[in-house]
Amino acid sequence: MSRATSIPVLDLTRYDEALKGDIARAVGDVFASGRFVLGPAVESFEHDLAAFLGCRHVVGVSSGTDALLVALMALGVGPGDEVVTSPFTFFASGGVVARLGARPVFVDIEPAGFQLDPARLADALSERTRAIVPVHLYGQGADMGAILAVAQARGIPVLEDACQAIGATVDGRAAGAIGDLGAFSFYPTKNLGAAGDAGAVATNDDALAALLRDLRVHGAAQTYVHERVGGNFRLDAIQAAVLRAKLPRLPGWNERRRSIAALYRERLAGLERAGRLVLPAELPGRRHVYHQFVVRLRTGGRDRVRRRMAERGVATSVFYPIPLHLQACFRELGGRPGDFPEAERAAGEVLALPIFPELRDDEAARVAEALRESLEGS
Ligand SMILES: Cc1ncc(COP(=O)(O)O)c(C=O)c1O
């Protein structure tokens, strides 16, 4: 059988010419300014992103990981503290907690949307809990209303990990701008991607914003005067310029991701009815921006399905195969298989299909067909 060109999970080389021109001009302006770290290009991007999110402050930083780290530093998290998050996420959501000498405490996910389950949250809190970090996984918001209700009753700040969810909304509000702080990643594969590493923290709190700005430059409110120990979490001007050129296109790109998701949904509905897979749920009040389109395979044999899809020229991914409580580096936390059954079940069942704005409808149709064929007889 002759194979058409293969379909990757993501193709960052499919750029339109107009955008290429806008980026070249924006980068040229940075060179002309001679300001390569922070400076006016970063300030302009921070301003535009704050307007997009509808929040008071955006502080550009060096990556999504550093956005989480510096946000926890601003909340004063340190040794002896606990930070509550999901066990089913990218490593950084829990890794930053350990880096500060604090203890990550996990709360299982709700199975429909893969998000931290607010019903289990209160039981995970203690007098040492210094922050709650819900993760808006795959581009869909966590249940912020319920999470904030628990957090506010206990006076615990909420840091949203919105690294996968720029442009998503929860009850009409921008994910990442609802809690006390929100962390964003602009890693090139994200819905809004830089040309390298970049991130940002959003907040409506003036004092936290000022603290974040200090911590981003080694805790120096004035050059060479250090009130506290921070780090080098600065955002490069070139990354900010690229991001600012791309930001006006983000709503259109997210819309396109949603139409690809609708196409997948239509083509895969029969498999769901037959009990072979579960399509991603769109939870009430949430606008999903499909950073990933993730199905659950009900039949087992995920490796075999992936192999058969690869033979048909379709790449797939698994986000994430090992929950955080079972990672070797967290062994001393005492996590055991069975501790968080929903996260563990999801880790064994999830399969991410190709999704990016430039993916064509005929390619998405081929992906759905390849999944159908690969599930047959599995
Ligand atoms: C949920 C989540 N948190 C944090 C991060 C960290 O972002 P970065 O890769 O920009 O450090 C990512 C990105 O990979 C992510 O998906």
Notes on the structure:
This protein is α+β, with helices and mostly antiparallel strands and 378 residues long. It has two domains: 232 residues, 3-Layer(aba) Sandwich (Aspartate Aminotransferase, domain 2), CATH 3.40.640; 126 residues, Aspartate Aminotransferase, domain 1 (Alpha-Beta Complex). The protein has a four-stranded mixed β-sheet with strand order 1-9-8-5. Strands 3-2-4 form a three-stranded parallel β-sheet, with helices on one face. α3 packs across α7. The longest helix has 24 residues. The protein is globular and about 65 Å long. It starts with 16 loop residues before the first helix and ends with a helix. The mean pLDDT is 96. The site of pyridoxal-5'-phosphate has 15 residues, from α3 and α4.
List keywords for this structure.
four-stranded mixed sheet, Aspartate Aminotransferase, domain 1, three-stranded parallel sheet, 2 domains, single chain, Aspartate Aminotransferase, domain 2, 378 residues, 14% strand, alpha+beta
Briefly say what this structure is:
The chain is α+β, with helices and mostly antiparallel strands and 378 residues long. It has helices spanning 17-33, 40-53, 64-74, 92-99, 121-124, 144-154, 206-215, 237-246, 250-273, 302-311, 341-349, 361-375, and strands spanning 57-61, 82-85, 103-106, 129-133, 159-161, 169-170, 173-174, 181-185, 199-203, 220-222, 225-226, 277-278, 286-287, 293-297, 350-353.
